[in-house]
Amino acid sequence: MSEIRTTAIVLAAGQGKRMQSNVRKQYLLIQDKPVLYYSLKAFEDSLIDDIVLVVGEGEEDYCKKEIVEKYGFCKIRSIIQGGRERYHSVACGIRAISWGCDYVFIHDGARPFVNDEIIQRAFCEVQISKACVVGMPVKDTIKISDQNGYVADTPARSLVWQIQTPQVFDQELISCAYEKLLLNEDKLISDGVVVTDDAMVVEYFMSTPVKLVQGSYENMKITTPEDLEIAQIFLKRHEK
To answer: Which of 63, 84, 196, 198 could cross-link 167 (Cys pair, CB 3.0–4.6 Å)?
Structure first.
């Protein structure tokens, strides 16, 4: 039996407009290291074989010097420029995988607290289901709104999850799903379909069901200045 190969696509091309900072959020510091460092470190120390780092336009050399070389990351096989939307960046990352790969982990670089336990759980599940996403059951009651701002429905809280990353897929499955997405992009836009995560692409274009895998409530995405303050608290807690 041949060795299973895994690749992580780490997305760091977002502009982070809600952070209200001149510095992109993935390069802001938690303690003395950039946000992006922590997720890369988690994958570097995990079962992942190769990493594709997707960055903003013109940031390839900066990331090579100030992230990859500075912190001694050895698994980052490619640093590439992302696209206009998140899904364009994911598509670029998938197409950059020119080596043998069985499973693809897609992760937002602004989620610094992914850990080995989460990666292991997702890896075990994807070998069974071919498609899985990390998330956690919501703590709050969720209301579905109608177009006028009135409550239209209240789904059972036990069935509602907040979705995180990594989202993990069989390589051929996710490649095919994204090729179909790009071919049908204009129609999706005209229909008002907004692609918000990778599971949605698989759900929309493929017949493979997507399995939910437990993540962590700490596996947060850094989006606002308040998130950065919370991240500082989490990191101090882990250092004790």
So the answer is: 198
Structural domain boundaries of the chain? 6-239
Largest Cα separation within the chain, whole Å, is: 57
Per-residue tokens: 159: 């069935």
C-alpha atoms less than 13 angstroms from C-alpha of 212 in its C-beta half-sphere: 12
Amino acid at 119: I
Q: Are 225 and 19 in contact (CB under 8 A)?
A: yes
Q: Of 138, 157, 161, 165, whose CA–CA distance to 220 is shortest?
A: 165
How does DSSP assign 87-141, residue by residue? HHHHHHHHHT--S--SEEEEEETT-TT--HHHHHHHHHHHHHHSEEEEEEE-SS-
Question: In this structure, are residues 223 and 18 in contact, taking their beta carbons and an 8 Å threshold?
Answer: yes
Residues of the chain with pLDDT under 70: 1-2, 15-22, 240
CATH class of 6-239: alpha beta
pTM: 0.94
The CA distances from residue 88 to 94, 95, 181, in Å, are 10, 11, 10
Q: What are the pLDDT digits (tens) for 62-95?
A: 999 999 999 999 999 999 999 999 999 999 999 9
